[in-house]
Amino acid sequence: MDGDPAVEPELDSFSLILPLPYRVAFILILGVWAWGVNLHYLYLLKIDVPSLIKYSSRTSSPLPHHQRTYALATTITGPLLISLFFFWTLTRGIPSAVLSWDIIPQSYLFLLCLFFLVPFKRLSPHGRYRFLTTLKRVSIGGIAEAQDGKFGDILLADVLTSYSKVLGDLFVSLCMFLSSGKSSTDRPDRGCGGQYIVPIIISIPSMIRLRQCLIEYKRVRDNPQKTAATGWGGQHLANALKYSSAFPVIILSALQRGYNPNKIGLSETGLFRLWLLTVFLNSFYSFYWDVAKDWDLTLFSPSSSHHSYAPISPSFPSSLSSDPLSPSFPARHQHPYPYGLRPRTHFHTPQIYYTAIVIDLLLRCTWSLKLSPHLDHWNDLEGSIFVMELAEVVRRWVWIFFRVEAEWVRAKSGGGAGLGDEMLLGPLPSRM
Description:
Blueprint: H1 13-17, H2 20-44, H3 49-52, H4 65-91, H5 95-100, H6 103-117, H7 125-138, H8 150-162, H9 164-178, H10 197-222, H11 234-244, H12 246-257, H13 261-264, H14 268-294, H15 350-364, H16 382-414
Helix pairs in contact: 2-4, 2-6, 2-9, 2-16, 4-6, 7-8, 8-10, 8-16, 9-10, 10-11, 10-12, 12-14, 14-15, 15-16
């Protein structure tokens, strides 16, 4: 610390060690590692994720997809560690030096984004080209047909909603770097570019999913061959409502940050209570949807413990049906499946599902820390904001395991990968 009063009050100790550009880069890279772990564990469970997202690699590499993802993650992690080493060596925790050397973390962040956006000939070029193609389609709210990889579009768009605040920080970092008299390693100015620019950026992923839901609704309505599984499309409207419920939270959060009673017409307490109501509705509606619709679990079903249960691939004599609801299914294998789950599961124990449900609920409700008089300012600290963004990425990482597993069960029950995706928002089919 150099004792400069014009500098030190602006930078907390966390920002001296890990300024905003590095925090954004860290969470982006973490997402690549997390996707590799998703692919790896699901591969061990013999769940074919590439077939679900309609991805066929054109490379002759014998390596499975998760190993190629790990190689990609390692390639982008190495330069981050080198960049951090040089930055820490040059700044030594001195605030004025941290502000002066913002070119180092900002350059790495720029190169990282360029790496994702330009499919070089090495390091999974086909995978990154597919990523860019999908990103281009979903960035305007588009969604492929089921046979063309709709499930992959849904996964990517949902991941973007979890990265919404990270995208906001990415813009803040770039805005501060390009602004005269500012440094991207300074205390983040989330009003950079205007009071409403960052909230608009944060809301874009929810807008994308909202438009996708409306497209799905229109497809169902225009389909002359409707079935009981697809319904009339009302569930897609309900899903659209879920994503719409994020907008009041974003707007009210922005109004609280720049509170002005002359413009808003509400007291600060009244504004906080209105925000509390909207975030409560959004969190618990989203939690219900995660469990009941995305994961196809029966926790909220009134008769969730009165069905027959069997693992997805039991060993039965070939002359007998492996369907637990079939009359020819051996009676000794029929028993009530664990409470709140479903007849067919891939993960080894019910406790894994219950743990995921609890994690999803807790991480959906991190906003409740503001209700504690001892922790009400915790969310305003830069280190705390970083932890919150990490927590949401972790929640989404857990969510992907069970979302993909549910899709695999649907695909196998529906007669092929992609067909089960039509049941995304409907009730569990009778065969399940």
